[in-house]
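FAQ: What does the model actually see?

It sees only this:
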Amino acid sequence: MNQESQLSTNHKDIDFFLKHIVPLVVTYSKENKKYTGVYTAFILSVRGRWFFITAGHCLQEIQSLKDCGYSIEKAVLLDGLRSSSFHNEPIPFAIDKISRFNLGGFKFLVQQDH
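And it is asked to produce this:
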């Protein structure tokens, strides 16, 4: 495989990966301190319902910061990582409407319906 065709293949692989990754960016504040956390995630659609999937350690960090007195100022999803993304601006994410629970060692977040 020549270098040009290898670059094209790599670009397709990266584009496929970025198509499925939707990072969650959370801005926290406590007194005069600010902190921004970026959490790798993806969206899974099943029968018309969307599920936000991320790792347990991401959920633990969010909870730990809240337990330490940080409040969440803003949470957004980034769907603009690809050049052909549908959303080039961050998408607001209602993290305050999320419930957390454990099932068989797995951690889940569930967004409450309106």
